[in-house]
Amino acid sequence: MPTAASPLARAHTPADVRAAVAGWRAAGEAVAFVPTMGALHDGHLRLVEQARMEARRVVTSVFVNPTQFAAHEDLDTYPRTLERDAGLLAGAGCDLLYAPTASTMYPEGFATRIAMDGPALGLETDHRPHFFGGVCIVVAKLLNQAQADVALFGEKDYQQLRVITRLAADLDIPTRIVGVPTERDGHGLALSSRNAYLSDEELAVARRLNGRLADAAARVREGAPIATVEQDAAAALVADGFTSVDYVAVRDADSLAPVDGSTGAPLRILAAAWLGRTRLIDNMAV
């Protein structure tokens, strides 16, 4: 992980970030944008590194978005480490940290909502029906505020990536959306800010998730019935020690529509499972 570098320039309002981007663009410099909720880890910094390959300038936002949390979820306890994040971003080559407040993003009287079908249906929506409404409104606002040429999102949140790609296309947002492969630890566990919640015992169990998905993907490629593969993988995760499994699902890799394996289209297997009070998600190409 890069070490902290010199202090990083910061913006706190849409006017500030737009002024910085306009100045770079006037100088002929392309701009990349990396939205985050902070508590940065190597996966986030990989996005920043990829952003530097996409554009001359990089803006990273840190905003814990309240609209994507339900009342019983971890908004209040979600890790907030802004000063540490700023140092890491400076070391990774970010040019500007955009850190708006909740009142800036959602001022008094804010009344707009976004509802999506298509890739937003099922999976996360079955278990967190509020989630994509909150994600879509904050991402639409951030993309409009930053007005970057390209925005980068991790493939760990694969359904979110497909939803945001559809959102940008449907709303004619000119920012190009790029997915970046999931960063993992040495055992294959997808890096996540919520991994910090895991005990040592839970961490050992969590590291089996990726392997179970790999086994399931191999069975699909061999022609096993998809419904059977999904059921067997979920049962295996519970046997491994996961508290419960929200879903293991094989879907069309682009639309995320359910499949029976007969179309020949690229497929993706996605999963969400609980370890105690911590919810983990992962996915991989089939």
Short summary:
The chain has helices at 14-26, 42-54, 82-92, 102-105, 124-127, 131-146, 158-170, 200-206, 209-221, 226-240, and strands at residues 10-11, 31-36, 57-62, 96-98, 150-154, 176-180, 244-252, 267-275, 278-285. With 286 residues, the chain is α/β, with parallel strands linked by helices.
Query: What's the CATH C level of the largest domain?
Result: Alpha Beta
Number of domains: 2
Distance between the termini: 30 Å
**Major β-sheet strand ordering:** 1-4-3-2-5-6
Range of strand content = 15-25%
What is the radius of gyration computed over CA atoms, rounded to a whole number of angstroms? Answer: 19 Å
Average pLDDT confidence is: 95
Q: Quickly count the helices.
A: 10
**What fraction, in percent, of the residue positions are helical?**
25-40%
* Broad shape: globular
What is the string of helix and strand elements?
EHEHEHEHHHEHEHHHEEE
Q: Considering the protein shown, what is the CATH homologous superfamily of the largest domain?
A: HUPs
Q: Any low-confidence stretches, pLDDT <50, length ≥5?
A: 1-5
Oligomer: single chain
Helix-strand category: alpha/beta
Number of strands: 9
CATH topology of the largest domain: Rossmann fold
Largest sheet: 6 strands, parallel
CATH architecture of the largest domain: 3-Layer(aba) Sandwich
